[in-house]
Each structure stands twice: as structure tokens, then as C-alpha cells.
Specification:
With 320 residues, the chain is of the alpha+beta class. Helices cover 52% and strands 7% of the residues. Strand 6 and strand 7 form a beta hairpin. The radius of gyration is 23 Å and the shape is globular.
Length: 320
């Protein structure tokens, strides 16, 4: 996908034509996006309130153009995201929201540990939600990437405003447009966010109840299995066949145990015929996990094995 890179440090005679061209290009793009919003039924007042005076957000462009490219092992990744500080913060949040989490589990069937795991990884329990205006950020990305997807998300964000759920200024999130404590894209907000108490618009920014219930609703809609784990650490023999590992090779707990996989003391009782896959994220000699259907469901929230393993691990550590 072609991306326009606005280079800094060009000499004056060269920089001015580039800046002028970029401004004209963005203005044309914005006009087309506004036309799409009108065709989608967004009121003109909302379109103007959302996009009038917008220019490319240079902070969004800088972050998007300079995303670090590196590969971490599971050991390195987990040591970063499963810090003692994060675990302690999660334990404090659990004490504050224990009754709320129980009520959400009762309604959606999603256990407290997975909600705490997602909450902690996404926004450090609501503390780091991002402070970008979502429509500003999404419009910049839609223009710079020439992305129909991000353009659609702009219109979905306008729909949130048009519904009366939140004013434009309150739609805050990451530079990529993910909003609030659950880091929902606007389209996900519209299909999945809930007001836990009912009677009002979901407030995934300021309401722990709405944020956690919306996470649970997302997982429940994607097939979360109540009273089942997502993953668990196990011990494996040194001669395990690495070719048999990976989330695609679902067998049963009993099958893996016959091959020498050992569940740890204190693991939840599970039937031997429960489907499970064996995951060795760092290969032979590293940590080993049995992963279950709920692991696949977490990956629909974020399609990363590391992320799904970390959600399960963080939740277990908080509730240990």
C-alpha cells in the first residue's frame, strides 16, 4: 500500500510545493469523505462539527510511519507486559471491582481473570487510553494510507456522535482510533459496547462497568465458553515432537497427557476429552501451554498468540 511520507528537513524551495500539494490533496480527500458521510445519512451538522478545519495530524503520521519493527521472544514479551507493577495494579483494581466483575460474569459468562487480563494489557486498567481525537486520527490515517477501512471508521465515529452517545470532543483514544478502556474501534463500539446498568449510552471511557461489560460482551458474542480456561502452563518432556505443537493442532487433554504433558498442581479440573492444543511459543526448552477454545476467542480481540497467552497469564497472576 502506497504511503505519502512528508519528509522533514527539505530545503525551502522544495518543501513549500510539497506542503502545498499535500494540503490540497487532503482537502480533496476530506471533501470526498464528507460526501460519503452524507450518503451514509450523517447529518450535516455532525459532519461539520467532526471535520471542519481538519488538517493532517502530524503526531499521528509520525507514530504511524515510525512504528518499531522488531521481533520479541515470548520470554521477552511476557517479561515486559507481566510486570510486578501491572500485577499489583490489577490486584488493586480487582479489590475495587470484585462485586462488579462477579455481576458481569453472571450476565455474560466471562470470568473475571480474562476481563482483568484484557483490561490490563489494553489500557493498564483504564489509565492509558490515549488522548487523540478519534475522528482526527482516523481521518489522517484514511488519507495517508488511502484506506477505505479507516474512512469507514470515520463514518462510524460520526454515527456515534449522531446517535447522541458522545460529542466529538469526547471521542478519545489511540493514534489508530481505538477508543476508551477496551480500545474498541468505532465500528466495534456500535455493535458491541453496552451500558451495563442500562438506560443510557455506553461510556467506555469513564465507566468501569460499561468498559468491562463491553469487553465481556465482545468475548461472549465470539463464543466464549463459560467456566473454561483459555490457557494454562504445563510441563512437557524433552522429546516432545515440535511439529505437533501449535494452536491449529487441537487434540484432547488426554491425548497430550499420554504424550507426557503434565498439568501443574492446582490446575482446574477439566475432562480428559476437552479439546486442547499444545503451544511452545519459544520452541523446545521454553515455556509450554495447553490452550483451549477460549484462547481462540481471545485472539479475535487481538490476533496474537503472545497477547492471548499474556491475557490468561495476567489474569491468573492477579487472582493468585
Amino acid at each position: 500500500m502506497l504511503r505519502r511520507i512528508m519528509l522533514a528537513g527539505l530545503g525551502g524551495a522544495l518543501a513549500l510545493p510539497k506542503a502545498s500539494w499535500a494540503a490540497q490533496d487532503f482537502a480533496s480527500f476530506l471533501a470526498r469523505l464528507q460526501a460519503r458521510a452524507r450518503a451514509a445519512g450523517i447529518p450535516e451538522s455532525i459532519i461539520q462539527a467532526s471535520t471542519s478545519g481538519l488538517v493532517p495530524n502530524q503526531d499521528v503520521l509520525k507514530l504511524d510511519h515510525h512504528q518499531p519493527e522488531f521481533t520479541l521472544t515470548w520470554a521477552q514479551y511476557s517479561s515486559r507486559v507481566l510486570s510486578q507493577t501491572r500485577i499489583a495494579n490489577g490486584q488493586g483494581k480487582y479489590q475495587q471491582t470484585q462485586n462488579l466483575l462477579a455481576a458481569i460474569t453472571s450476565r455474560y459468562g466471562v470470568s473475571a481473570d480474562v476481563m482483568l487480563g484484557i483490561w490490563g494489557l489494553e489500557t493498564n486498567f483504564g489509565a492509558n487510553q490515549g488522548n487523540f481525537n478519534v475522528i482526527d486520527a482516523l481521518t489522517t490515517l484514511a488519507w495517508d494510507r488511502q484506506s477505505h477501512y479507516f474512512g469507514n471508521e470515520v463514518i462510524k465515529a460520526m454515527t456515534i456522535v449522531a446517535r447522541g452517545d458522545a460529542p466529538v470532543a469526547n471521542l478519545l483514544g489511540s493514534y489508530a482510533g481505538a477508543m476508551g478502556q477496551p480500545q474498541f474501534m468505532p465500528s466495534t463500539y456500535l455493535t458491541t459496547a453496552v451500558s451495563f446498568a442500562g438506560g443510557g449510552a455506553p461510556d467506555i471511557w469513564n465507566s468501569d462497568a460499561d468498559a468491562l461489560a463491553s469487553m465481556a460482551n465482545y468475548l461472549a458474542k465470539d463464543g466464549w465458553q463459560a467456566d473454561q480456561p483459555s490457557s494454562e502452563p504445563v510441563l512437557v518432556s524433552s522429546n516432545i515432537n515440535i511439529a505437533m505443537t501449535g494452536r491449529e493442532n487441537m487434540q484432547t487433554i488426554g491425548y497430550w497427557q499420554r504424550l507426557g504433558v503434565q498439568r501443574l498442581p492446582g490446575a482446574a479440573p477439566l475432562p480428559p476429552d476437552m479439546p486442547a492444543a499444545l503451544l511452545l511459543p519459544d520452541g523446545a526448552g521454553g515455556q509450554a501451554f495447553l490452550v483451549y477454545q477460549n484462547f481462540i476467542t481471545i485472539r479475535r480481540y487481538n490476533p496474537s498468540d503472545y497477547y492471548a497467552l499474556a491475557v490468561g497469564a495476567l489474569g491468573r497472576m492477579i487472582l493468585a
